[in-house]
Write a structure and sequence with these properties.
14 strands, four-stranded mixed beta sheet, binds pyridoxal-5'-phosphate, 15 helices, alpha/beta
Length: about 425
């Protein structure tokens, strides 16, 4: 070996010692997740079109009943939606072909945005590739572009809203969850002339509680603040036409921004905001998360459009949904299972421990062919780990009976805490 080779070898050795061992970092952090019982294990499902809420679970090689889907009404398999997607796919092909600005705006996008604006009784709407992207793009743009903006954010807001607010780098304050009085107190102490943006959700998807929208708007109005409402878990499900809690409560016109998803009750994919023509036009021209990404495939925009149209007219799905939800809450409660109080379609059942929560979910799957994903920290606070049950209009009486029997059995087996009698 020559001098140079030796030198290079030594230098490489030093380099290896001085730099970080990335694999060992990843491995340590993964070990920590395992130790805390919150390592994420994904299901391996194949949804069975036409057999909703059934899916083949490849982990156990059997058909299971899905009890934790956000396809709340089964619209992801509704014949009207499938027909619209198929027809648009045959007409226009697979992808969008570009960003909205460069060749990626299809007629389906235009129609969808018109429909969403009408759904919320607002002048305009803007579609994004997901609800997460809509929140991140809209909030980061509004809060960074308006000089001196102060953001007030509900303590339980979703990660996508937090991401948007963080990315704006605007001054931000957290108010106590769904507490208009605390919001008012914070606003009281802020300089009157600074612009403010109040961000909250309607249905909070982990506890299933519903925010007092009118009171929140009253407080925001008193201080001249903008309002931003995430209706992701309410659109399609509440209100005479599926316009969400803001429609149900008659406050759609009072919100600066109504944000929603096309991926939950509407069964497809995509997110949007609705509001004044000026606000929407402003975001269209300024939000990087809208501008610099390829648009939704037109076939999916057409599928979402069909779902929105159907649910604006039809009450059958919403009525059946609420009836099934009430039945599940009642039956689980009667069996002494710790159903957390919820005023919406979400039925959280408290476990209170990450490891037990995972075990309960595993036992439900393996012994009862019931799939309910455990919900652990950081999605919910530690000590409030839960199984989050989402009934749909397509869960039968037999499905509900099997659910209650499965839960009772697993609670018995793991000796878990039941509800106070
Ligand atoms: C799921 C969710 C989102 C994100 O919507 P996607 O369309 O799934 O990206 C935004 N906000 C809340 C409250 C959510 O639960």
């Amino acid at each position: 070996m020559g001098a140079c080779a030796r030198l290079c070898y030594r230098e490489n050795t030093n380099l290896a010692q001085a730099t970080m061992d990335f694999d060992s970092f990843f491995s340590k952090r993964l070990d920590a997740l395992h130790a805390e019982g919150r390592y994420r294990v994904f299901a391996d499902l194949e949804r069975r079109c036409g057999r909703f809420p059934r899916a083949l679970d490849h982990r156990i090689g059997a058909e299971v009943t899905v009890w934790c889907s956000n396809d709340y009404l089964g619209m992801g398999q509704h014949p009207v939606v499938l027909a619209a997607i198929e027809a648009e796919m045959r007409r226009t092909g697979a992808g969008a072909g570009g960003t909205r600005n460069i060749s990626g705006t299809s007629h389906a996008h235009v129609l969808l945005e018109r429909e969403l604006a009408e759904l919320h009784g607002r002048e305009a709407a803007l579609v994004f590739t997901s609800g997460f992207v809509a929140n991140d793009a809209a909030l980061s743009t509004l809060a960074s572009a308006i000089p001196g903006m102060i953001v007030l954010s509900d303590a339980m807001n979703h990660a996508s809203m937090i991401a948007g607010i963080r990315n704006s780098r605007a001054e931000r304050h957290i108010f106590r969850h769904s507490d208009p009085a605390h919001l008012a107190e914070l606003l009281e102490g802020m300089p009157r002339e600074r612009p403010k943006l109040v961000c909250f959700e309607s249905v909070y998807s982990m506890d299933g509680d519903i925010a007092p929208l009118a009171e929140m708007c009253d407080v925001a109005d008193r201080f001249g603040a903008m309002t931003y409402l995430d209706e992701v878990h309410a659109v399609g499900l509440y209100g005479e036409h599926g316009g969400g809690i803001s429609e149900r409560d008659g406050v759609s016109h009072r919100l600066t921004v109504i944000q929603g998803t096309l991926a939950k009750a509407f069964g497809t994919i995509g997110g949007y905001v609705a509001g004044s023509a000026l606000m929407v036009d402003f975001l269209r021209g300024h939000a990087p998360g809208f501008i610099f990404t390829s648009s939704l495939p037109p076939m999916l925009a057409a599928g979402a459009l069909a779902a929105v149209r159907h649910l604006r007219e039809s009450q059958a799905e919403r009525t059946a949904h609420q009836e099934r939800v009430a039945a599940v809450k009642r039956r689980l409660g009667e069996a002494g299972l710790p159903v957390m109080p919820s005023t919406s379609h979400i039925v959280p059942v408290l476990v209170g421990d990450a490891g037990l929560c995972r075990m309960a979910s595993d036992l439900l799957l393996r012994n009862h062919n019931i799939y309910v994903q455990p919900i652990n920290y950081p999605t919910v606070p530690r000590g409030t780990e839960r199984l989050r049950v989402t009934p749909t209009p397509l869960h039968s009486d037999d499905d509900i009976a099997a659910l209650v029997a499965g839960f009772s059995d697993v609670w018995e087996l793991l000796q878990m805490r039941r509800a106070a009698p």
